[in-house]
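Title: Prediction job returns without error message
Component: structure pipeline
Severity: low
Priority: P3
Assignee: unassigned

Description:
Job completed but the reporter wants confirmation the result is attached to the right record. Sequence as submitted:
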Amino acid sequence: MLRSFFGDSVFFAAIRGYGNGAAYFTATSTDLQIAFEKVTKQNVASSFNKWVFGIGNPIFNILWSRNGHDVNVRLEQTQDSAKIGYFRLPLVVEARTYDGKTERHTIQLDSVHVNQISFTLTFVPDSLVIDPVGAVIQKINGTVKLGVMPKEQPSDEKQKVLQ
């Protein structure tokens, strides 16, 4: 997840610094946070507090619809907000057609109960895949598609495909 959030160059520079600094010693998660702060020259405490030192992960109910090339996605975070809170994170959404077209969009979720995101594709999608490479620790409880005529899904599609 850190690699996904910060990108390859920051991630690998921070990991090298963390490894070099901890060589032959015990290292902690705080040491890893310090390594990321040295590379980014930013305070990353809020990310580490939520994702490393905190408890839980986002649990989503998802509703999506399309109007031609335009896609609307509603992501509701349903985890126990009193204990865990809500998560702010980048999330990749991949639109697909049954004939093999794909297009990815990275959306930024705010740390709120419901995020509504819209984007336009270069084609009309048949399905959406949330986090197609599994970069984010999350769970999808339920998904609903509105305004799209159902098509038969190929049997080898992953469970995360939202029809």
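Comment from assignee: result matches the submitted record. The chain is about 25% helix and 35% strand.
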